[in-house]
Write a structure and sequence with these properties.
The chain is an all-alpha fold. It has 2 helices and no strands.
Protein backbone atom coordinates (compact mmCIF):
# COMPACT_ATOMS: atom_id res chain seq x y z
CA UNK A 1 0.00 0.00 0.00
CA UNK A 2 2.74 2.22 0.68
CA UNK A 3 3.91 1.77 -2.84
CA UNK A 4 0.44 2.73 -4.07
CA UNK A 5 0.48 5.82 -1.92
CA UNK A 6 3.90 6.72 -3.29
CA UNK A 7 2.69 6.23 -6.85
CA UNK A 8 -0.45 8.23 -6.19
CA UNK A 9 1.61 10.91 -4.52
CA UNK A 10 4.11 10.91 -7.35
CA UNK A 11 1.31 11.07 -9.95
CA UNK A 12 -0.40 13.86 -8.02
CA UNK A 13 2.87 15.75 -7.75
CA UNK A 14 3.52 15.36 -11.49
CA UNK A 15 -0.03 16.40 -12.25
CA UNK A 16 0.25 19.40 -9.98
CA UNK A 17 3.67 20.26 -11.46
CA UNK A 18 2.18 20.14 -14.99
CA UNK A 19 -0.75 22.29 -13.86
CA UNK A 20 1.69 24.74 -12.27
CA UNK A 21 3.65 24.95 -15.56
CA UNK A 22 0.43 25.62 -17.50
CA UNK A 23 -0.55 28.30 -14.99
CA UNK A 24 2.92 29.91 -15.18
CA UNK A 25 2.75 29.90 -18.99
CA UNK A 26 -0.75 31.42 -18.91
CA UNK A 27 0.44 33.98 -16.37
CA UNK A 28 3.35 34.90 -18.66
CA UNK A 29 0.95 35.26 -21.64
CA UNK A 30 -1.45 37.41 -19.62
CA UNK A 31 1.42 39.52 -18.32
CA UNK A 32 2.63 40.07 -21.89
CA UNK A 33 -0.91 40.99 -23.04
CA UNK A 34 -1.24 43.28 -20.03
CA UNK A 35 1.99 45.07 -20.99
CA UNK A 36 0.76 45.54 -24.57
CA UNK A 37 -2.64 46.78 -23.42
CA UNK A 38 -1.03 49.08 -20.89
CA UNK A 39 1.22 50.58 -23.61
CA UNK A 40 -1.79 50.95 -25.89
CA UNK A 41 -3.75 52.60 -23.10
CA UNK A 42 -0.92 55.08 -22.52
CA UNK A 43 -0.76 55.86 -26.25
CA UNK A 44 -4.52 56.40 -26.39
CA UNK A 45 -4.33 58.67 -23.36
CA UNK A 46 -1.61 60.73 -25.07
CA UNK A 47 -3.73 60.95 -28.23
CA UNK A 48 -6.75 62.05 -26.18
CA UNK A 49 -4.69 64.76 -24.47
CA UNK A 50 -3.35 65.92 -27.85
CA UNK A 51 -6.89 66.18 -29.19
CA UNK A 52 -8.05 68.06 -26.11
CA UNK A 53 -5.32 70.62 -26.76
CA UNK A 54 -5.87 70.74 -30.54
CA UNK A 55 -9.66 70.83 -30.84
CA UNK A 56 -10.37 74.09 -28.98
CA UNK A 57 -7.68 75.87 -31.00
CA UNK A 58 -8.91 74.35 -34.26
CA UNK A 59 -12.50 75.13 -33.36
CA UNK A 60 -11.59 78.78 -32.73
CA UNK A 61 -9.84 78.96 -36.12
CA UNK A 62 -12.87 77.50 -37.87
CA UNK A 63 -15.17 79.92 -36.07
CA UNK A 64 -12.99 82.82 -37.19
CA UNK A 65 -13.01 81.57 -40.79
CA UNK A 66 -16.79 81.22 -40.64
CA UNK A 67 -17.18 84.80 -39.43
CA UNK A 68 -14.86 86.07 -42.17
CA UNK A 69 -16.80 84.16 -44.85
CA UNK A 70 -20.12 85.44 -43.50
CA UNK A 71 -18.81 89.01 -43.61
CA UNK A 72 -17.54 88.55 -47.19
CA UNK A 73 -20.88 87.08 -48.22
CA UNK A 74 -22.73 90.00 -46.62
CA UNK A 75 -20.53 92.51 -48.46
CA UNK A 76 -20.96 90.68 -51.77
CA UNK A 77 -24.73 90.59 -51.33
CA UNK A 78 -24.74 94.31 -50.58
CA UNK A 79 -22.59 95.03 -53.65
CA UNK A 80 -24.87 92.90 -55.84
CA UNK A 81 -27.95 94.65 -54.47
CA UNK A 82 -26.42 98.07 -55.19
CA UNK A 83 -25.38 96.96 -58.67
CA UNK A 84 -28.88 95.68 -59.37
CA UNK A 85 -30.40 98.97 -58.19
CA UNK A 86 -27.99 100.92 -60.39
CA UNK A 87 -28.87 98.77 -63.41
CA UNK A 88 -32.59 99.19 -62.75
CA UNK A 89 -32.14 102.97 -62.53
CA UNK A 90 -30.10 102.96 -65.74
CA UNK A 91 -32.79 100.92 -67.50
CA UNK A 92 -35.48 103.29 -66.26
CA UNK A 93 -33.52 106.33 -67.49
CA UNK A 94 -32.90 104.72 -70.87
CA UNK A 95 -36.61 103.94 -71.19
CA UNK A 96 -37.41 107.57 -70.40
CA UNK A 97 -34.88 108.76 -73.00
CA UNK A 98 -36.32 106.37 -75.56
CA UNK A 99 -39.83 107.56 -74.80
CA UNK A 100 -38.75 111.23 -75.12
CA UNK A 101 -37.01 110.48 -78.40
CA UNK A 102 -40.06 108.61 -79.70
CA UNK A 103 -42.29 111.53 -78.74
CA UNK A 104 -39.88 113.99 -80.37
CA UNK A 105 -39.77 111.99 -83.59
CA UNK A 106 -43.55 111.64 -83.59
CA UNK A 107 -43.84 115.39 -83.09
CA UNK A 108 -41.42 116.07 -85.94
CA UNK A 109 -43.34 113.75 -88.24
CA UNK A 110 -46.57 115.49 -87.28
CA UNK A 111 -45.08 118.94 -87.93
CA UNK A 112 -43.60 117.85 -91.23
CA UNK A 113 -46.98 116.44 -92.24
CA UNK A 114 -46.96 117.85 -95.75
CA UNK A 115 -43.31 116.97 -96.48
CA UNK A 116 -42.37 113.72 -94.67
CA UNK A 117 -39.59 113.06 -97.15
CA UNK A 118 -37.84 116.22 -95.94
CA UNK A 119 -37.66 114.83 -92.41
CA UNK A 120 -36.19 111.57 -93.65
CA UNK A 121 -33.78 113.43 -95.90
CA UNK A 122 -32.59 115.56 -92.95
CA UNK A 123 -32.18 112.53 -90.71
CA UNK A 124 -30.26 110.63 -93.39
CA UNK A 125 -28.02 113.62 -94.02
CA UNK A 126 -27.29 113.91 -90.28
CA UNK A 127 -26.54 110.19 -90.04
CA UNK A 128 -24.22 110.20 -93.05
CA UNK A 129 -22.33 113.26 -91.83
CA UNK A 130 -21.51 111.45 -88.59
CA UNK A 131 -19.25 109.03 -90.48
CA UNK A 132 -15.58 109.74 -90.97
CA UNK A 133 -15.08 110.81 -93.69
CA UNK A 134 -18.64 112.05 -94.09
CA UNK A 135 -20.68 110.66 -96.95
CA UNK A 136 -22.09 113.13 -99.39
CA UNK A 137 -25.57 112.77 -100.74
CA UNK A 138 -25.94 113.43 -104.37
CA UNK A 139 -28.93 115.61 -104.84
Amino acid sequence: MMNDDKETSSFSAQSLEAELQRCRLRCKQLSSENSLLSALSCRLEEDREDMERFLPHHSAELEEQLQELQERLKLQQLAHTQELQALKLQLHLEKLQLQERTELLSSEVTHQGEHPHMLLHGKLHHLLSSFSPPFQLQE
